[in-house]
Amino acid sequence: MLPLSARALPGALHARPRLVSSIPRIQLVAHLSTTPNQSATALEHKGHSGQPLTASGKIRKEVPLPSQEKKEGAMQYVLTTLDQVANWARQSSLWPMTFGLACCAVEMMHLSTPRYDQDRLGIIFRASPRQSDVMIVAGTLTNKMAPALRQVYDQMPDPRWVVSMGSCANGGGYYHYSYSVVRGCDRIVPVDVYVPGCSFAPMAMISLHDL
């Protein structure tokens, strides 16, 4: 004959716990008891006029966005209109694709420094070819890098342009007779503009964007 504990085991496994049925009631009571307090607290953050208040009880001042401000006065209207015209002009600015290969890339980076600050013209370097309008090839192009140059060029959307920057990118430069150097990046991609110099003047690139 089985002991008492062994006979009671199957019944204990099939028995329904009574505590489970009381949990939703407890949660419902807690929700009903806290709802009035939450609504009262939310009403305390607003004054008699319906304006939001700070923690100290003062009326909180809301600052509108620049696009939501009312244009008061002729001077503010003119300045706001000129700002919109400047933003409209910048939206068609060129976004160069950086393809720095050698020391000419340092001069290309110099364009974003405060001395020249090409960002003020809306010209921003992009690291993705799908967001670029023009590719700037700066430096010595080797045979090993040539397939990557062509692959990046093929990923750029139309219309697209290529700038060959410096003597090494134009025709090999100092390394023209090296076995591993491509004698001009125009053998790999079609070049639209050639910038001479070793190294080139950064101001030449600013003049290039004006074209």
> Which fold name fills CATH's third level, the topology of one domain?
Rossmann fold
Q: Determine Rg (CA atoms, Å).
A: 35 Å
Spatial shape: elongated
Spatial ordering of strands, largest sheet: 1-2-3-4
Highest CATH level, the class of one domain: Alpha Beta
Question: How much of the sequence is in beta strands?
Answer: 5-15%
Q: What is the rounded distance between the termini?
A: 104 Å
| Helix/sheet category | alpha/beta
Low-confidence stretches: 19-44
Largest sheet: 4 strands, parallel
Q: What is the helix/strand order?
A: HHHEHEHEHEH
Number of helices: 7
Mean pLDDT: 70
Assigned CATH architecture of one domain: 3-Layer(aba) Sandwich
Give the number of DSSP strands: 4
Helix content: 25-40%
Pfam families: Oxidored_q6
InterPro entries: NADH_UbQ_OxRdtase-like_20kDa, NADH_UQ_OxRdtase_20Kd_su
Family: Belongs to the complex I 20 kDa subunit family.
Keywords: 4Fe-4S, Iron, Iron-sulfur, Metal-binding, NAD, Ubiquinone
